[in-house]
Design a protein that fits this description.
It is built from 3 helices and no strands. By secondary structure, the chain is mainly alpha-helical. It has one domain. Helices cover 72% and strands 0% of the residues.
Length: 43
């Protein structure tokens, strides 16, 4: 069970990269498990 803050930070980093690639937020939500609000904070 490795659910630590580092895991969340890594997901946010991945989400930012996906956003930069033009991937829709809905797909990023599926890929990372982050909420729409969390992803929008990254934008």
């Amino acid at each position: 069970m490795e659910k630590k803050n580092g895991s969340k930070a890594e997901k946010r980093k991945i989400a930012k990269n996906l956003l930069n690639m033009g991937i829709p937020i809905e797909k990023i939500m599926e890929a990372t498990g982050l909420s729409k609000e969390e992803i929008e904070e990254i934008e």
